[in-house]
Amino acid sequence: MKMDEKKTAENRSEFRTVLDQFHSVEFSINKEDPIFQFRVRDISPSGMGILINGESKVLNYLKVGLVLQMKFNPENCGGSPETLKTQIRHITLIEGGRCKGQYLVGLLIKPGR
């Protein structure tokens, strides 16, 4: 296995652990805005994200590169939520299929809190 392949495999297994742990994510852009909540989705072998309705006001505030403190809610009801520094990686309009007109927002958990 080449070094790049090994790194990708390691990142993927860490990523899968995150997806297995959390069901949804909550965040607010600032203290005056409401708290938005979205289900965490497995969007690719190397990424996670959320789906946002194309008419949601939160899209006016999200920008690629923006880093927010997001509260990740556990998959099981006995776990505790975890607040993690999270970066918006991409915002992509879905042009076809059952999610047509929604936006897929890619998330990346950053090191540190």
Structure description:
This protein has 113 residues and is α+β, with helices and mostly antiparallel strands. 17% of the residues lie in helices and 42% in strands. It is built from one helix and seven strands. It has one helix spanning 3-21; strands at residues 22-27, 36-39, 41-44, 47-52, 67-74, 82-93, 103-109. Strands 2-1-5-6-7-4-3 form a seven-stranded antiparallel sheet, with helices on one face. β1 and β2 form a beta hairpin. The longest helix has 19 residues, at 3-21. The protein starts with a helix and ends with a strand. The model is unreliable at 1-16 (pLDDT under 50).
Structural class: alpha+beta
Strand order of the largest sheet: 2-1-5-6-7-4-3
**Helix segment count?**
1
Distance between the termini: 33 Å
- Shape summary: globular
Radius of gyration: 15 Å
The proportion of residues forming helix, as a percent range, comes to 10-25%
Low-pLDDT stretches: 1-16
Q: What proportion of the residues form beta strands (DSSP E)?
A: 35-45%
Number of strands: 7
How would you characterize the largest beta sheet?
7 strands, antiparallel
Question: Overall mean pLDDT score?
Answer: 81
What is the chain-wise order of helices and strands?
A: HEEEEEEE
